[in-house]
Amino acid sequence: MLNFDYYTPTRVVFGRNTEAETGKLIREQKCQKVLVHYGSGSVVRSGLLERIYASLKAEGIQYVSLGGVVPNPRLSKVREGIALGQKEGVDFILAVGGGSVIDSAKAIGYGMTNEGDVWDFYAKKRTAKACLPVGAVLTIAAAGSEMSNSSVITNEDGLIKRGYSSNYSRCRFAVLNPELTYTLPDYQTQSGCVDIMMHTLERYLNHGTNMEITDGISEALLRTVIKNAQLLKKEPENYEARAEVMWAGSLSHNGLTGCGTDGGDFASHQLEHELSGMFDVTHGAGLSAVWGSWARYVYKERPDRFANLAVRVLRVSKKDSEEATALAGIEAMEDFFRSIGMPVTLRELKVEPTKEQILKLAEKCSFGNTRTIGVVKKLGREDMAAIYRMAKG
């Protein structure tokens, strides 16, 4: 095992009706004026936003609102939020929504507490020194941003999607009520389940040493999401299944499943970021569409890890060799994705990039051929292009 630094300061308030505690949680942060940040009209139509406002009013907390966050959140909305927050003198940002809203809120927090252009942090030009306090009321179990130190933003200028990670942006609290996810379309629910699994798979499929306890946690989390994703196909208002998935989402990306490892691979995420940047696809669906091709491209570097995944998580019987077991596991994972309605090729994702677009995707993913991605197998620009071509289906 490797040395590690595990830091998870976010307070989690989990269960039915917990959104009613939002005002009290913000008051405990000694904040006076809140920017309530949210996405589409669903939080309005469901009455959630009004319940949040009532909770704030009950604690005497002033607020202003900014909606309109979209999946793959946009830099222009972040800049709008920074300008509004500065004008109104807010000292706390409350994200009401899923990972896109939380990521946008974190970026606004960076922009309000650091001079210069907030995009500089995502473009890796400089490092943030602070972030306005952020809290979250989660409505989609997927990204894990409510407990992670990361956020991902898309710059419309060039359709560039980039992430930035800093402990300054970790949410002060996260309100998790599984009932708030009942009304999600099945496609969003299942895309979220894929995203949750990928956050663990990226860490599980590594090229370093591993801790038995970390492996066990990761494998249990994956099995739990597989079981409950399939259950939610039939019973979308099953509270226990929603609760299992929601808590798995938080645990999958708060660092727990990477303790004692080399940090994980994350090539699939990097490859997908360019896909959703260029084609604006749903993140989880994009991940399932590229994962199998990535796995087949790299599995020979760590057939033992892929074989463990096959046997311990996907219940594949051991084959004559580790490589054969690994391949059977990759096929079993793709079978699972199909069983919950997720694509396993770009064609199934309804994206068919041209040769020129594939080269552009690889060029952007490699930062103009200046970086490699992944640790299972280090991937250069040509490797990336090869995986995109394999993924076409």
UniProtKB/TrEMBL annotation:
The keyword Oxidoreductase applies. Residues 191-391 form the Fe-containing alcohol dehydrogenase-like C-terminal domain. GO terms for molecular function: alcohol dehydrogenase (NADP+) activity; butanol dehydrogenase (NAD+) activity; metal ion binding; methylglyoxal reductase (NADPH) (acetol producing) activity. Keywords: Oxidoreductase. The keyword Oxidoreductase applies. Coiled coil: none annotated. GO terms for cellular component: cytosol. Residues 9-178 form the Alcohol dehydrogenase iron-type/glycerol dehydrogenase GldA domain. PANTHER family: ALCOHOL DEHYDROGENASE YQHD. This is Iron-containing alcohol dehydrogenase.
